[in-house]
From TrEMBL:
One of its GO terms (molecular function) is oxidoreductase activity. The keyword Oxidoreductase applies. Residues 23-253 form the Aldehyde dehydrogenase domain. InterPro entries: Ald_DH/histidinol_DH, Ald_DH_N, Aldehyde_DH_dom. The keyword Transferase does not apply. Pfam families: Aldedh (PF00171). Keywords: Oxidoreductase. This is Aldehyde dehydrogenase.
Amino acid sequence: MSDRLRVKKTYKLYVGGKFPRSESGRSYPVSSPDGTELANAALASRKDGRDAVAAARKAQRPWAGQTAYLRGQILYRAAEMLEGRAGQFAEEVAEATGAEPDAALGTVESAIDRLVHYAGWTDKYTSVLGGANPVAGPYFNHTTPEPLGVICVIAPQDDPFLGLIEAVAPAIAAGNTAVVLASETKPLPALSFGEVLATSDLPGGVVNVLSGRAAEIAPHLAAHADVNGIDLSGVADAELAASLEAAAAETLKVVRRPGRQLDSLGLLRQWTEYKTVWHPAGMAAAAGGGY
């Protein structure tokens, strides 16, 4: 029997493609439902939240400027990397939620399937949501969806992994970047997911993962002027959700309310805005185009 000491995993934030500790130096213990202490997670501060938003904003324009095909390939690569580590994630989900091993593995497999699903949507949703508009005049009129920008996601507290994937995947598939606040009591699978993203060719800053207290960090994310949308589907406290929605309204953010169920296309539509372009048909005809 080996007497070597096992190297314990440290769970850090994932911001700008790197794995920093909280700038405050704080951490907090994370335990399983039966009280077994699992690890210490970084306790993110307001400054960490601002850093994550800055990283997301810096990455957003280049990410949106990538081809839809490439975004799909990167999401698919993330699914591949997660598939290769399915056993580890099943163990972390089981420890975090108290689920049976088979159920935990099923959750991880569902998360992999979601990534593949949205990888397939990246080069299709613009055709479904956009199109040519009939107009009464000598014009071409086209509407196309474009990414909203930086999206903050408050991950579901009791569905710490699959719920997070379901919220983040459509946002980044549509060309947005994301700041994710992991489940406060069950953050470990989300923090490990940062390692998957870091090895999936996803540019740093496209997804940023924080762990900590929603009541401390979320109000500042909701009020941040450089955030364009906020997903409150993981906020269980009705009073906190109402205050976050009110803060988001001050800067005209798009808000996904708790309990609002959307299908895949609805989730993609949630984080897009529409650009309509008018172009004189005569100019196109003169250049050899036209109907």
